[in-house]
Amino acid sequence: MRGIRLLSAVSRGVAVLRPGWALSAPRPGRRGAPLAIALLLTTTAACSGAPGRAHEGPGPADTSEAAAALTYGTRPVRDPSITYQPDVVIVEGGPRAIRSASSDGLTWTIDGKARGAQDVRLGKVLYATSRAVGRVQEVRRVHGDVVATLGPVEFTEVFRDAHLTLDQDIDGGALHYLEIPDLPGAVTVSADAPTDAATEAEQGAAKNAARDVPTTARTIGQTSVRAAHSGRVGAVVAREPVRVAAAAGGTLPPARSSSVTADLGEWKAQPYRSPGAFGLKFNHKAAAGLKVFVDFSLKTEKLHIRSDVPISGGRVADGATFAVEGIKSVAISIAAGAANGVIDNSKIRAEVPVQMTLPIAGTPFAFNISWKFSVATALGGNNTTVTAGGEWGLDGAIGMVNGSIVTPKLSVIKSIMDSVTGISVGVSGIATAVEFKVQVGVGVPAAFAGPYAKLVMDFGVTNGSALGAPLTRCVGATLDGKVGGGVGVSVSAVAMAALKKLLPTMKFQLVQESLTPFVHRQQTLPDVPLCKS
Question: Quick one: which of 422, 381, 197, 421 has its CA closest to 289?
Answer without folding.
Answer: 381
